[in-house]
Amino acid sequence: MTGPPEQKIHETLENPRLQAAIYSSTARLADHRRTALATLPEYEELRTQAHLIKRHTIENLGFYLEQFESNAKAHGAQVVWARDAAEASDFVWELAKRKNARLLVKSKSMTSEEIDLNERLAHHDLEPVETDLGEYIIQLAGERPYHIVAPALHKTRYDVADLFSAKLGVPREIEIEKQTAIARSVLREKFLAADIGISGANFLIADSGAVTIVENEGNIRLTTTAPKIHVAIAGIEKLIPRAQDLAVFLKLLGRSGTGQALTVYTSFLTGPRRAAEIDGPDELYIVLLDNGRTRLLADREKRESLYCIRCGACLNHCPVYRKIGGHNYPWVYSGPIGAIITPQYMGVEHEPWLPFASSLCGACAEVCPVKIDIPKHLLTLRTQVHAAEAERGQGRMERLGFRAWAWVMRHPRIYEMAGLMASAVLPGEHWFSKAPGLLNHGPLGAWLSQRDLPPVGKSFRQLWRERRKAAE
Amino acid sequence: MTARDEILKSAREALGGGDVQPEATPAARIRIPEVALEARIASLFRAVCALAGKTFLAGSPADAQAYVAALIGSGPAVASNAAVLRECGIADLAGVQTGFTDLQELRQACASAPFGITSADYALADTGTLVMLSSPQEARMISLLPPVHIAVVPRSRILSGLDELLSLVPRPGEISSSMVLITGPSRTADIEQILVRGVHGPGEIHVLVS
User: A224-277, pLDDT tens digit by residue?
Assistant: First the structure.
C-alpha cells in the first residue's frame, strides 16, 4: 500500500507562514459563509431542493444529456463528447490548428485542471493563458491550484512580487492593488489578441442548451466575449433540468463559497452571437467530458458525489485540509470532496490511503449545500480499499490482528486477564514510551508518537465489581 | 462506437436503466414576495451601496442626463444603443460615442474609453443586481471593458429578486445569446484575501433609476 506523501506533509506542517495562510484564509471564507447564511432563513429548504434536483438529474443523466445536446445545437452551439482527458484536449488542439490559433485565454476551470489542458496544449506549442488572478499567479509559478475557489491561497504578496518581476519583467511591486493592476493590463492585451477563449461551466441547463458560469473578476465575461471562438469544457454531471432551477443553486453557491448573495457576474450563455448582436463569439463549442464520471455513476450510493457544485465549503471546514493544505492531496480536487471523488474517478487502488486521511468529524457533510454525505462515502471507500487489498493478499497481519482482537473481546475472562497482564507489565504514565521497542515500530509507533495514552489502572469491570461490593 | 454513443451507453448501463423517460421532475422552487415599488428601490440602492456601488434616483430624464454629464466630464464615454439613453438625452452629451454596429469600432472605443453607459433590462432589488440581455441595442463589451460602468434602469424594471426574474424569463436563450447578472463592481481577493476592485471588469459602478 502506497502511503501519503509524509515528507511533503511534514514540510507543510513545519512552515509557520503557510500554516497561518491556510488557517486564516479558510477561517475567513467560513466566516463569510456563516454571515451570509444568517440572512437566508430558507437555507435548509434550498439545500433539500438542490439535493433533490441533482439526484433527479443524475438518476436520469442520459435523458438530460440528450435534451441538453439538442437544445444547444438548436441555438447554434456545437456539442463535442470526450471520453477522457486526451480526447478533450486533442479536440482543443485540433480546433486551434484548424483555426490557425496560437494564443488561448482561459478562465478558471477545475475541469480543465483535471485534464491537464495547459500542459497538453503547451506541448503542442500553443500558448494557453490563465486569466483569473489567482490562476494566473499559479500558472506563472508552475503550480496547481491550492483551493477550489482560492487557487493562490498559499501565496503572499511578496511571493507575487517576486513572481511578477521574474516572469513579466516588471519592477518588484508589493502593493496588492498595484499587483492587480499589473495583471489587469498584461491580461487585457491577451484578451484582445486571443483567438480562442476557454472556460469551464458551473451549470449546463438542459431545457435551454445553455452554459452558466459564475465569477467575480470579469475574466470569464472577457474570455467568452472577446475571442471569436468560445470553448466551454464541462463534466457531464454539471447538468440541471431548467433555467428556473438556478434560483436555488445560485443562492447556495455564492453564499457557501465566498459568502456572497450572488457572485459579481453570472453569465447565462446560449449559443454563439446572434446575427444582429454586435459582439460575442462567432462559434461556441461545448465539450461534454466523461473522464471517469460514468464509472462513478455505477455505485448507487456514492453517485451522489456527482452532485458537487464546487463551492469549496467542505475544504474550509475540514480539520485535515486546514493543516495539510491543498498540495498534499494526490489530484487537483483536494479536501473532503477530493478524498471521495479521486478514488472513484481513478479507482480505489490508485491512492488507497486517501479515504483514511480523515477524522470523520462530519463538518464537511454539515456545510455541503447539496447535502453530500461525505463521511459515509469515506467509510465505504475504506471498506473497498480493504476488500481490494484482501483480494491481492495484502494486509494479512492487520486482519490477523483484528481477528485475534475480536476473539479476545468475545471471551470476557480472557479479555480481563489480558488487561491485568498489561497493567502489570506496563505501569504508570507514558507506559508506551517505556514499552520495549515492540510497540514503537511501524504504524502503531507513528500513531503513538502523536498521542498520549491514559495510564493503565484498574479496569472498568474491576471498578464495577468493587463499587457493587461497597454498596452491599 | 462514437464517444457520444459510448458515454450515453455507459451512463445508462451504470444507472441500470434503458431509455426511460425521467419520472416527474421536482417542481421548480420559485418564491416571489410582494414588495412595493418604493421598497424595491430602497432595497436595490441599499444592496448596491453595500457592494461599494453608487446609486442615483432621477426625478426626470433631465436629472439623469445631468448626473451622467457631471460624472463623465468631457469623456470619452461609450454609450449603448438603448432607447432609454436617447430618451434621457445621455446619448447626445458631449464626449459620448454611440450608435455602434461594427464590432471592430466598438472594440476600439471600449478598449480606451474610461466610461461605459448602458441600460439594464432588469434590476434585482434584494441583491443589487443588474440584468443585461445582449442585443443589437445592448452590446456585451460596454459594461465590461471601460473601468467605470453607468447603467440606467427604468423603475418599472426593478424586480424583487432572482425568482421573479426567472419566472418572467424562464428561458433566457430564447431572447438572447447572453444574459449576464452584474452584482457590484468587478473584484478579487486572490492575493492574501485582500479585496481589490476592478480587476478585469469595471471597478466602479453607478446604478441610475429613471
Answer: 999 999 999 999 999 999 999 999 999 999 999 999 999 999 999 999 999 999
Rg (CA), chain A: 26
Burial class (CB within 10 angstroms; exposed 0-12, middle 13-18, buried 19+) of A327:
middle
Domains of chain A, CATH where assigned: 1-39+312-394 (no CATH), 40-291 (3.40.50.10420), 412-471 (no CATH)
pLDDT score, position B18 = 57
Partner-chain contact B176 A66, CB within 8 Å:
no
State pTM to two decimals: 0.91
Subunit contact B7:A83, Cβ cutoff 8 A: yes
Q: Which of residues 313-372 of A touch B (CB under 8 A)?
A: none
Shortest Cα distance, chain A CAs vs residue B184, angstroms = 6
The conformation of residue A455, written as its DSSP 8-state character, comes to P
How close A23 gets to chain B, by Cα (Å)?
A: 12
ipTM over 0.85: yes
From CA A122, how far away is CA A104, in angstroms rounded? 10
Q: Cβ–Cβ of A243/B172 closer than 8 Å?
A: yes
- The closest CB to that of A187, out of B100, B189, B200, belongs to B200
B22/A270 Cβ within 8 A: no
**What pLDDT digit, counting tens, does each position of A92-130 carry?**
999 999 999 999 999 999 999 999 999 999 999 999 999
Which residues of chain B, if any, have pLDDT below 50? Answer: none
Contact list, A191 vs chain B (CB under 8 Å):
200
> CB of A17 within 8 Å of any CB in chain B?
no
Say what the pLDDT of residue A454 is: 67
The pLDDT assigned to A458 comes to: 76
Cβ-defined contact of B172 to A244 (cutoff 8 Å) = no
DSSP for A121-162, written as a single string = HHHTT-EEEE-SHHHHHHHHHT---SSSS-TTTT--HHHHHH
Please give the C-alpha separations between residue A424 and each of A293, A428, A452, A466, B204, in angstroms, as whole numbers.
Answer: 55, 10, 19, 19, 75
Is the confidence at residue A456, as pLDDT, over 90? Answer: no
Within 13 Å of residue A188, how many CA atoms lie on the same side as its CB? Answer: 21
Chain B residue at shortest CA distance from A145: B190
What's the pLDDT band for A443 if we cut at 50, 70, 90?
A: low
Find chain A residues with C-beta within 8 A of B135's C-beta.
276-277
Pick the residue of B49, B200, B204 with the most A CBs within 10 A to test the interface with A by mutation.
B200
Mean pLDDT value of segment A270-286: 97
Q: Which three cell numbers stand for residue B7?
A: 458515454
Instruction: Kindly state the helix (H) or strand (E) to which residue A287 belongs, with its residue range.
Output: strand A283-289
Task: Please name the fold of domain B28-209.
Answer: Rossmann fold (3.40.50)
| Interval A280-306 mean pLDDT | 95
**Cα–Cα distance between A423 and A408 in angstroms, integer?**
17
Q: What residue of B is the nearest CA neighbor of A221?
A: B144
Per-residue burial over B111-132, b if 16 or more Cβ lie within 10 Å, else e, is: bebebbbbbbbbbbbbbbbbbb
- Residues A286 and A238: their CA atoms lie apart, in Å, by 12
Q: Report the C-alpha gap between A284 and B136 in whole angstroms.
A: 19
Q: Do A271 and B173 touch (CB under 8 A)?
A: yes
